[in-house]
Design goal:
mainly beta, 46% strand, 281 residues, single chain, 8-stranded antiparallel beta sheet, 7-stranded antiparallel beta sheet
């Protein structure tokens, strides 16, 4: 259940995404705003909400498993030498206001709160635009500012002792189908070869749709890709891989990911051309 304060993104007059600002969710899901459903221009859904395999996966949004020990991802927390553990450490991203709100996008202010204290303040900018008759782009920027008086660091299961699990940041939970989606970059293909790599763009292709994600700033392009296709279809850009990401008091971390949402299959050349158009438009 949600409130009525849920903008619908439109491209060329067609609805392509619903943004839920105040979801009513259990605390262990780390409640946060999300986009779902997101669809292609032909109306094919390319997101999932609270699927059975990971109920805390919420469409498209920002989720971080470790912000100074607080879980803003949902579900269990990976504890070094212990593994995934149920902890009462979940935070919430709380919608404060819209600075701008149009049919094709919005600018939003959010507060990241845990244990009764505000840790981070976020400005989120989301825009949708038409690329072709069969493809559109979702431009998603988030800026996290440390509003405390001390250092805050962002971590992941990878930094906490689980190699290869550097999830946390922008995350897209894609549609689960009978067959696992195909993942590829300009140079590699397959989950094993693409997961954990740095690439200008990454494509995830289902039966009748393709997503092409691209880091649109130098800082974002330095983050490796987190990829799952066999277990479940999901792609993210990792904020903390190998080592924690520190944010000094008053400092801000900015990331921008642009995603092409296309009907049908795309070749490597088509994916590269569309994402170039999306990032530079």
């Amino acid at each position: 259940m949600t409130t009525n304060d849920s903008p619908v993104l439109r491209v060329a007059g067609r609805p392509v995404g619903r943004y839920v600002t105040r979801p009513e969710l259990p605390a262990r899901f780390s409640p946060r705003p999300y986009l779902h459903p997101v669809t292609t221009l032909a109306g094919t859904a390319v997101t999932e909400l609270s699927p059975a395999d990971h109920p805390h996966h919420l469409g498209v949004g920002v989720a971080v498993p470790d912000v100074e020990g607080h879980n803003f991802w949902g579900g269990r927390t990976f504890v070094r030498d212990q593994g995934p553990t149920e902890l009462d450490n979940h935070g919430a991203q709380r919608h404060s206001s819209f600075q701008l709100r149009d049919p094709d996008g919005f600018v939003e202010e959010l507060r990241w709160v845990a244990s009764g204290a505000e840790l981070l303040r976020e400005r989120r900018t989301v825009a949708a635009g038409e690329l072709t008759d069969t493809a559109w782009a979702l431009d998603f920027t988030f800026s996290l500012t440390n509003v405390t008086s001390g250092l805050i660091s962002i971590g992941s299961p990878d930094t906490n002792g689980r190699p290869g699990a550097a999830y946390g940041g922008f995350f897209w939970r894609a549609r689960k189908e009978r067959e696992a989606p195909h993942v590829f970059t300009a140079d590699h293909e397959g989950e094993e070869r693409v997961h954990g790599t740095r690439a200008d763009w990454l494509a995830l292709a289902g039966s009748t749709w393709t997503l092409v994600l691209a880091g649109a700033t130098d800082g974002t392009r330095q983050d490796p890709w987190f990829v799952r296709t066999a277990e479940y279809p999901g792609v993210g850009s990792s904020l903390a891989s190998g080592e924690r990401l520190p944010i000094e008091p008053g400092d801000t971390v900015v990331r921008r990911v642009v995603t092409v949402v296309a009907d049908g299959p795309l070749s490597r050349d088509e994916a590269a051309a569309l994402v170039r158009k999306a990032v530079t438009r």
